[in-house]
Amino acid sequence: MRTIYCLIAVCALLSSGCSSTSADEQITVLAAASLQDVFEAAGEDFTEQTGVEVTFSFAGSQSLVTQLAEGSPGDVLATANEKTMDQARADGTVADPLPFATNTLTLAVAPGNPKNVQGLDDLTRTDLLFVRCAEAVPCGTASDKVLADLQTTPVSEENSVTDVLGKVTSGQADVGLVYSTDVTRSQGAAEAVDFPEAETALNTYPIAVTTQSDAPAAQRFVDHITGPDGQRLLQEAGFGTP
Amino acid sequence: MTRQPTAPSATPAWIWLPAGFGALLLVVPLVATVVDVPWADLPELLTSDASRQALSLSLRTALGSTALCIALGTPMGWVLARTHLPAQRLIRTVVLLPMVLPPVVSGMALLAAFGRNSLLGGALEGFGIRIGFTTVAVVLAQMFVSLPFMVLGVEGALRTQGVDHERTAATLGAGPGRVLTRVTLPLIAPALRSASVLCFARALGEFGATITFAGSFPGITRTLPLEVYLVRESDMDAAIALSLLLLVVAGVIVAATHAQPRRPV
Q: For this UniProt entry, which segments traverse the membrane (chain B) (predicted)?
């Protein structure tokens, strides 16, 4: 029953999207959830410049890759790490991905840094409540890399980077290991303390046109993101250049 | 039970259709989970350090919070059933509220009360007592969501019970304490039992308030449901194996509380 409703809803969406424009004036972009703010802004610029309508689908990278493999429509795929993009390439759903942004780990602290956290070494302090991502999730893998030489005693290992940030912004924890774009998105609820070791665990975001796409606008959208306009928006949001 | 057996009332044929759809909705996901269980690796998956730590923590905290719910919830049910408080209806509503609150809202409420930035949590922190990220926080979260079940069970039993037996015992010279332990409690024992089982089940399954309020650390705050949610990211087989464990426990609980089959009317 639900499937039928979903199909009706999807059909309605598709037909309304296609009714007034020809096929190459509309593209669908599948992008990692962390890119939502930037891509929506970039999409508006792109539509203004080219007249091409962009429909977005934001979700976890892993889900997007699985959806594509199962036949979901999509002209462009942008994931939050190279591992998931490699999988899409192995599935044969994309070709020739390009890195377009990086994200680094940073220490999130309360505004004003009341506990005077200066760098990674502070994480061994016993007077600090430190929260990080669990090893099993992607941000935890990156955290393991930068913490390899330190004896830290986190009070909690959370399921996602947003959960870690939440513990810091709610005041439950003093310091959390998160991505710098998360701190930017918190809009002042947390402050970032950068540390040089973060360079060893850079997270690279790749983008690619899907093999099913026959819309010339798909490549133009990729060019827009890797070009100056897209890069400016990404940097404003706290992403680095690859 | 002493009622004359009657023939089942006529069932319109169409009732089978929605009833069947409803049953499918409930049964298919459960069967699908069992089908997906990696039976060959099951012993290994269930005896891993992480699984055993999570199971042990879950059992200890759920038993502890159930004991505390009995100790506090029974008197609460008594007060609601046998005394006349001002604004009784309002009090009952507030006390039962956590039962229907979304768990994440319960977590936010506990944070507001016991978090480091809260009045209470801040004061405790002054004495060097921290609740967040400790097993105490897990038990508190479990109690917050399961205590209403105990209150409701006890209050309901006392109300249907009435006070006749207790009056008789008092007339015969028993003091209030003796009436309570020799008359009232034995009479509501079955209700107390099923309410405890419900409390335990609710505590064992607690997820939202725990992850919001207590955090997630192996052996301290990462209970079985949190472990399932975490390993799902990296190891689907392990997540399904642990789900089966919780499913079996849930099955035992339901069978224990609703053991009596009811005949059609």
A: 12-35, 55-81, 93-115, 127-152, 239-259
